[in-house]
Design a protein that fits this description.
β3, α2 and β4 form a beta-alpha-beta unit. The chain is built from 13 helices and eleven strands. The protein is globular and about 60 Å long. The chain folds into two domains: 172 residues, Rossmann fold, CATH 3.40.50; 180 residues, Up-down Bundle (Dehydroquinate synthase-like, alpha domain), CATH 1.20.1090.10. The N and C termini lie far apart (45 Å). It has a seven-stranded mixed β-sheet with strand order 1-2-9-6-5-3-4, sandwiched between helices. Strands 7-8 form a two-stranded antiparallel ribbon. It is of the alpha/beta class. The structure holds nicotinamide-adenine-dinucleotide (NAD) and glycine (GLY). The site of nicotinamide-adenine-dinucleotide has 28 residues, from α2, α4, α5 and α6.
Length: 360
Amino acid sequence: MQTVSVNLGQRSYAIELGEGLLSRVGEILKARGIGGRVGIVSNPPVADLYGEEVRESLRRAGYETALVLIPEGEAHKDTASLGLIYDALVEQRFDRSATLIALGGGVIGDVTGFAAATFLRGIDYVQIPTTLLAQVDASVGGKTAVNHHQGKNLIGAFHQPRLVVIDLNTLRTLPPREFAAGMAEVIKHGIIEDAGFFGFLEERMDSLLSLDAAAVESAVAASCRIKAAVVEQDEREDDRRAILNFGHTIGHALESFTGYERFLHGEAVAIGMIQAAVLSAGRGLCSAAELGRIEALVRSAGLPWRIPGDIALEDLVAGMALDKKSQAGKIRFVLCEGIGRTRFQWFSPAEIVRELAPGP
Ligand code: NAD
Ligand code: GLY
């Protein structure tokens, strides 16, 4: 087991990471001084796989537990699922000493985190992420949210977890497509902050995709360290934290344009990262060779890498200009200054269309 620290003053916490930690969750929580009753929030498939192991471990450590299930999928990252959690907590008379556990992927983590941020004006929660994407990204940094029918993550709060427990063995039941989608965020961390880590991913992608335990542990730990360092510098995304959105401007546009049905989030980010690198190379910030390395690494992870030919760039870009983060019709991109460094630049829609490579 290794520990990555997230240093945020009174809101600091540890990320405990290793194999077989689910069966030790109870003792890990006890050792961290987490008390009270524990409400485990999950969805049916993840609870079937891992719910009993976590509950049993908590019981052994003397915790009283309740399991709250919400339906599976992004469509249920909504206020109805929140309502299910609040109902269960109220019915079972949970008080302010209670702790929630998010057992699942980023959807469960985001909903549970927001429930914890708001129930009784805020209670503790622990993240137990079971997808690669949630282990390397969503469980760290305290962004919590549910979706509104008009847009993703519109209702949310910053609420840091008390603890993150990552059992790498849970990745063994994850469908390969979901694993690859999480790998997009791992690659992103190398591009934005750490050229050495990017090189490690180039060397070890085959081992990572075959779930070599040492390689996976190194990649997850490095990703958590990189994300933690960025969050420590700018917890509430006043500025610098936005570098974590590398690849997300076009990624979000692709997801929204295709009704959130065609691409997993990480797949859309993979395409978006290559397009952001194309813009970076076009403006002389990164070399053609570095652009080639980014594209090759994304492709080696089995991720999509081009905007599909049936999606017009003009339509995608038009959607971005309407986004709440655009200013005077201009869109702020995170670009890479070579591998391992970033900078922000504003683009008009016409500049984006002109400077981006067309699909096949
Ligand atoms: P997800 O939570 O939908 O999980 C993907 C699928 O995998 C689900 O069907 C789930 O039931 C299943 N699953 C989970 N763990 C499994 C396991 N070990 N074995 C088998 N199946 C398993 O998707 P995700 O990619 O984990 O998360 C995406 C969500 O995360 C989005 O809502 C996104 O907005 C959010 N997100 C949040 C942050 C943040 O900082 N808070 C960052 C990135 C993404
Ligand atoms: N996923 C981006 C962030 O946490 O800021």
